[in-house]
Specification:
- This protein is mainly α.
- The chain is built from seven helices and no strands.
Length: 104
Amino acid sequence: IGAIVAREPQLVSRMDALIRSPDFWLRRVALLHQLDRKEKTDEARLFDYCLHCADEQEFFIRKAIGWALRQYGRIDPGAVRRFVSIHERELSGLTRREALKHLG
């Protein structure tokens, strides 16, 4: 889906809707749609989506948040470290471990 959203930027608003979907698989799509965006990642949107889903108990959501943060951490490790540090209590242990896995 990330490639489609990159080609069709107007679909970002659809991702904004999906992050609020009652279906966790659709929320997961929204969380992960920027995985391959690298420097073009919308950091504010990424962090907002992560916070929106941070209190969820669903394993696949917790893992997706960590995965999305870990990928972005390859571009801006400082931003991810700060985000995880500031929101440590809101993020699950799984999410924190995944996010910081390659950041030392």
